[in-house]
Amino acid sequence: MEFRSVGVVGAGVMGVGVAQDLAHRGHDVVLIDVSDAVLERSRKELKTGLRTVALFKKVAVDSRDVMSRVNFTVDYDALANVDFVVENVVEKWDVKKDVYARLDAICRPDVIFAANTSAIPITKIGSATKRPAQVVGMHFMNPVPMKPMVEMIRGFHTSPATLDAGKRFLAEMGKQCVIVEDSPGFVSNRVLMLTINEAAFLVQDRVAQPADVDRIFKTCFEHKMGPLETADLIGLDTILYSIEVLYENFNDDKYRPCPLLKKMVDAGLWGRKSGRGFFSYE
Q: Cα separation of 196 and 90, whole Å?
């Protein structure tokens, strides 16, 4: 195993999924977030995720062994000896910029930073570090342990050696990748976020109820999930932040966030993680 110890920054849905997958495959993981309360919640979500993997993949999972490999902490100094970092913090530039400054100061000079971002350009993230050649985008899909493919993004300064290392890192997680060039939203979210945003407009305009919007996609196009169910799974806050990033970067009205989406986020209807979004999970 080339990357024995991995730092996972941000213990939200994506961070927990990355940490779970890494620990399950034998890596030592340092999982960092801003408060003990967030980490306690992530600990419970990680245990639940392990049960889900055991159920759906029909594999034996020693939860105690996997959990023992994860160091839940708020202390960035714990990243001093990691071999690789996956960053998963909120899709807000001011937050990410500060995180990368801290990572730069603490991590070894040879360590690669993988940004698990939905829309923020990798070149911009690289500019926040002193090692832009060692910054690469890794857009994991949710739920991370169940998805075999990752969208890997080459920033302007990302070196070929970093891309090769990224491929080896993903191979250790049992995942393949598609490499794309840097652009806000990349391939997946430039298409997906527009689709979800337009689906929200359809609900706002009373063209159809959420269940009917999704039913059309699932029945007519044989998609496993409709756009609004997908939005709830990702998190409506993440959807809104991503749309705002696209709108800011392209200056194109087609990325104008749906007011209903904004209202739902303000009301705390963030999807599965809050128990209610376009659908109820309570």
A: 19
Residue count of the chain: 282
Q: What is the mean pLDDT of residues 170-190?
A: 95
Q: pLDDT confidence of 91, banded at 50, 70, 90? A: confident
Omega into 143 within 30° of 0, i.e. cis? yes
Write out the chain in H/E/C secondary structure: CCCCEEEEECCCHHHHHHHHHHHHCCCEEEEECCCHHHHHHHHHHHHHHHHHHHHHHCCCCCHHHHHHCEEEECCHHHHCCCCEEEECCCCCHHHHHHHHHHHHHHCCCCCEEEECCCCCCHHHHHCCCCCHHHEEEEECCCCHHHCCEEEEEECCCCCHHHHHHHHHHHHHCCCEEEEEECCCCCCHHHHHHHHHHHHHHHHHCCCCCHHHHHHHHHHHCCCCCCHHHHHHHHCHHHHHHHHHHHHHHHCCHHHCCCHHHHHHHHCCCCEHHHCECCCECC
For residues 182 and 233, give the distance between their C-alpha atoms in angstroms, rounded to a whole number.
25
Query: How many alpha carbons lie under 13 Å from residue 47 in its C-beta half-sphere?
Result: 8
| pTM assigned to the model | 0.88
pLDDT value, residue 55? 87
Q: Residue 125 is encoded by which pair of tokens?
A: 């993230």
Closest to 229 (Cα-Cα) out of 217, 237, 240: 217
Other beta carbons less than 10 A from residue 233's beta carbon = 15
Catalytic residues: 118, 139, 151, 189
pLDDT in tens, 40-65: 999 999 999 999 988 888 888 899 99
Q: How far apart are CA 2 and CA 157, in angstroms?
A: 23
Which pair of tokens denotes residue 172?
A: 């250790």
